Amino acid sequence: AKAKIEQPSLSSAKEYYNRANQHSMNHEYEAQLEDLNKAIELDSTMADAYMERGNLYDMNLPKQRGGDEKVLADFTRVLEIKPNYSAARWNRANTYKTLGQYDLAIADWTTYIEGDTDFSRQGEGKTKAIAGAYYWRGNVYQYCKRDLSKAIADFTAALQLNPQTENAHRARGQCYEALGETEKAQADFAIEPK
Predict the structure, then answer these.
(1) What is the largest CA-CA distance in the chain?
(2) Sequence-distant (≥ 6) Cβ neighbours of residue 98 within 8 angstroms
(3) Where are the alpha helices (DSSP H) in the chain?
(4) Is residue 181 helix, strand or coil?
(5) What is the C-alpha separation between 80 and 78, in angstroms, rounded?
(6) Lowest-pLDDT range, 47-51, 65-69, 80-84?
(7) Predicted local distance difference test score (pLDDT) of residue 123
(8) What residues contact 154, with CB distance under 8 A and at least 6 apart?
(9) Which pLDDT does position 1 carry in this prediction?
(10) CA angle 120, 122, 128 (to 5 degrees)
(11) Mean pLDDT, residues 51-66 taken together
(12) pLDDT at res. 52
């Protein structure tokens, strides 16, 4: 185990947040967590600090240090501060799916698609982001809710917005196949995204 990093005190939430990002780049996750906690303690409305901590709990800390409940709490807090924060909405929808709370996942995807979502931080742009959200909501309908007609509608919407949506043709084809619509299924299976 790495030795605990002794860190000097800083004077502002922003300084702690910035140092936490440095720790993240150095894979010093415990020190990152410590700085994010301090930033949040000093500024309970710093949405980005909750966002980063939620991601840290989700991806880089062992489950006993993080866990889906902590992840969910942080993404929910981000959305209380900034309801239109696209990445927090996206990540919370995925966390709800992981927790088996499928209706809440669908509600978040729906808000992401239809709500006042801020896509300014999405590198791929709004259209592709929404296409992705349709795909993932369709995925919940297909695998978790077993509502194949809603899944097909979402996969179709995704492909209309972005014909290159990864796996959407295959997923829609599986739905058609399950419904006995073999020709439509074969047509989808024949299309390989470029």
Answers:
(1) 66
(2) 68
(3) 13-25, 29-42, 47-59, 68-81, 86-98, 102-114, 126-139, 148-161, 168-178, 182-190
(4) coil
(5) 5
(6) 65-69
(7) 84
(8) 134, 135, 137, 138, 141
(9) 47
(10) 115
(11) 88
(12) 97
Name the packing angle between helices 126-139 and 86-98 (round to 10°).
Answer: 10
Provide the token pair at 52: 């980063």
Give 121-176 pLDDT, tens digit per residue: 888 899 999 999 999 999 999 999 999 999 999 999 999 999 999 999 999 999 99
In Å, what is the CA distance from 134 to each residue of 35, 98, 141, 188? Answer: 36, 17, 10, 17
pLDDT over 80 (residue 194): no
Q: Distance between CA 97 and CA 86 in Å, rounded?
A: 17
Start-to-end C-alpha separation, the chain: 45
Exposed, middle or buried, 78 (CB in 10 Å: 0-12/13-18/19+)?
Answer: buried
